[in-house]
UniProtKB/TrEMBL annotation:
PANTHER family: CXC1-LIKE CYSTEINE CLUSTER ASSOCIATED WITH KDZ TRANSPOSASES DOMAIN-CONTAINING PROTEIN, CXC2 DOMAIN-CONTAINING PROTEIN. This is Uncharacterized protein. InterPro entries: KDZ. It holds the Pfam family KDZ.
Length: 169
C-alpha cells in the first residue's frame, strides 16, 4: 500500500495545479514588449512582438530588411535606434545585410543620445548630422504615449494573481 501511495504522490506532483498552470500560461504567452517602426511623420509602419526573449538586435535588422524591400534601391533611409552605434558596428563587422549598408544612415534618438560614449555621441547624434535636419527620432516614444491608455486592456484578463495566492477567505 505504501508503494502505491508513493506512486500516486509522484504522479500528482508531475501535473501542474490550476494555479501553477495559469502562471505558466501567463508567462509563456503574454507579450513582453513591442518594437515599432515609424516613418518620418510618426505613422506606424510595423509592429513586432518581441516575445519571451525580450529586445534583440535581430528585430531591428528584420525591420530594416523589410522596409528596404519595399523601397527603390536609390533611396537613402535614416534609422534611429537607442543603441545604433553597437548595431552599426556589428552590421559592418559581421557583414549583416551588406547590400543594405550603402543606403542606410544611422542615428540615436535625441532622448537616448547622451547615453553612449562621447565618440558615439558625436558620430550618431541627429543634430550633428546634416542629413537628419532637425529630426529628433522620438516618433516611437510619441506612439507609446498615444497607446498609454490601451496598455491596461492588453493585460491578461481573468482571475487576478493576488487572488490565486490568497487561501484565507
Amino acid at each position: 500500500m505504501a508503494v502505491i501511495n508513493d506512486v500516486i504522490d509522484r504522479c500528482k506532483d508531475s501535473y501542474l495545479g490550476d494555479k501553477d498552470y495559469h502562471i505558466k500560461i501567463t508567462k509563456e504567452f503574454s507579450d513582453k514588449g513591442l518594437i515599432v517602426l515609424v516613418c518620418r511623420h510618426d505613422c506606424v509602419l510595423w509592429f513586432i512582438n518581441m516575445g519571451p526573449n525580450g529586445e534583440k538586435q535581430y528585430f531591428m535588422l528584420a525591420m530594416m530588411q523589410r522596409l528596404l524591400r519595399e523601397l527603390p534601391e536609390s533611396f537613402t533611409v535614416g534609422f534611429f535606434y537607442n543603441v545604433i552605434c553597437a548595431l552599426h558596428r556589428e552590421m559592418e563587422q559581421w557583414q549583416l545585410l551588406p547590400h543594405c549598408l550603402p543606403c542606410l544612415k544611422f542615428s540615436t534618438p535625441v532622448f537616448h543620445s547622451y547615453g553612449p560614449q562621447w565618440l558615439c555621441q558625436l558620430s550618431y547624434h541627429p543634430y550633428k548630422n546634416p542629413k537628419f535636419s532637425h529630426t529628433d527620432g522620438e516618433g516611437c516614444e510619441r506612439e507609446w504615449n498615444l497607446l498609454n491608455g490601451v496598455i491596461p486592456m492588453c493585460r491578461i484578463s481573468g482571475v487576478s494573481l493576488p487572488l490565486l495566492y490568497n487561501t484565507e477567505y
